[in-house]
């Protein structure tokens, strides 16, 4: 599943292509699974609106929309969750539409925005709120949370630090890849109880997580499955992985083999020597 760096990369890429353009027409597939809002309501809400900007909120991609004719009020937000295999692609109309395409938005600039999802675990929805409150993710933002607030998140929690990092109601956007990699950089064993980690170790994890996420964004994310950006370009951060999916390979620091265990229902990769 795309995590924060991948979603950030896609959102930035889409924004560069479609910001300021009007949605001329909308086509949606007949399948039920990708749509959290009815297809009729979504089509009516999207058609003839202008895309003000596109950005990431947690693991969601948010489209701020303005009504027809340049209306000053925000009419709605279109929320895209990529799920396991979802992709947002900006393509010329003559480019063949990929199999498993579930939404095609024709844009005033002459290109199309396409949502493609083979497994249909992704989600498309409209967000409307009274008082102008925009869509918000379920937890705190890893890139902006202060060190002290980060430490406070884990105070008294009995679950493992790996499980805590994956808990989207605590921090949104962090998934398996970046939990494993940040714990390695911080030198923390993923099985350690979150609430028993010292303030010093949690501050080290906060710094490591931000560094890992920022570097992954700079490198376009990790392409270990179906992930590509809006132009169909893969990321490069997978070349920087120290532990994730490197089971049995030598640790790049100490040379001992990387281990794997299942924790919080997820494959977890770590170095038993470097992480205590």
Concise description?
By secondary structure, the protein is of the alpha+beta class. It has 6 helices and 10 strands. The longest helix is centred in the C-terminal third of the chain and has 20 residues.
Protein model, in words:
The protein starts with a helix and ends in a 6-residue tail after the last strand. The strands form three sheets. A four-stranded antiparallel sheet has the order 1-6-7-5, with helices on one face. Strands 2-3-4-8 form a four-stranded antiparallel sheet, with helices on one face. Strands 9-10 form a two-stranded antiparallel sheet. A hairpin with a 2-residue loop joins strand 9 (about 260-265) and strand 10. The protein folds into two domains: about 5-130, Alpha-Beta Barrel (N-terminal domain of MutM-like DNA repair proteins); about 145-270, Helicase, Ruva Protein, domain 3 (Orthogonal Bundle). The protein has six helices and ten strands; from the N terminus they run H-E-H-E-E-E-E-E-E-E-H-H-H-H-E-E. Helix 3 (about 145-155) crosses helix 6 (about 200-220). The chain is α+β, with helices and mostly antiparallel strands.
Shape: globular
Largest sheet report = 4 strands, antiparallel
CATH architecture of the largest domain: Alpha-Beta Barrel
Structural class: alpha+beta
Question: What is the end-to-end distance?
Answer: 28 Å
- Name the strands of the widest sheet in spatial order: 1-6-7-5
Mean pLDDT: 93
């Amino acid at each position: 599943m795309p995590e924060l760096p991948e979603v950030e990369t896609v959102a930035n890429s889409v924004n560069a292509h479609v910001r300021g353009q009007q949605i001329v027409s909308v086509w949606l597939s007949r399948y039920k699974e990708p749509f959290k809002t009815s297809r009729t309501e979504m089509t009516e809400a999207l058609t003839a609106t202008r895309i003000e900007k596109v950005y990431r909120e947690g693991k969601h991609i948010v489209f701020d929309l303005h009504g027809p004719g340049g209306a000053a009020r925000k009419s709605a937000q279109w929320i895209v969750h990529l799920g396991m295999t979802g992709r947002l692609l900006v393509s010329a109309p003559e480019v063949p539409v990929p199999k498993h395409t579930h939404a095609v938005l024709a844009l005033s600039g002459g290109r199309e925005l396409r949502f493609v999802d083979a497994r249909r675990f992704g989600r498309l929805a409209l967000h409307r709120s009274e008082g102008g409150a925009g869509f918000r993710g379920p937890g705190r933002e890893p890139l902006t949370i202060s060190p002290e607030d980060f430490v406070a998140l884990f105070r008294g929690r009995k679950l493992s630090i790996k499980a805590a990092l994956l808990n989207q109601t605590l921090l949104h956007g962090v998934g398996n890849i970046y939990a494993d990699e940040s714990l390695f950089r911080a030198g923390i064993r993923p099985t350690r109880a979150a609430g028993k980690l010292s303030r010093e170790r949690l501050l080290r994890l906060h710094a490591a997580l931000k560094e890992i996420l920022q570097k992954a964004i700079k490198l376009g994310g990790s392409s270990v499955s179906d992930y590509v950006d809006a132009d169909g370009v893969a990321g490069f951060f997978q070349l920087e992985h120290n532990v994730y999916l490197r089971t049995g390979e030598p640790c790049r620091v100490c040379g001992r083999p990387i281990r794997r265990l299942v924790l919080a229902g997820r494959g977890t990769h770590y170095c038993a020597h470097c992480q205590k």
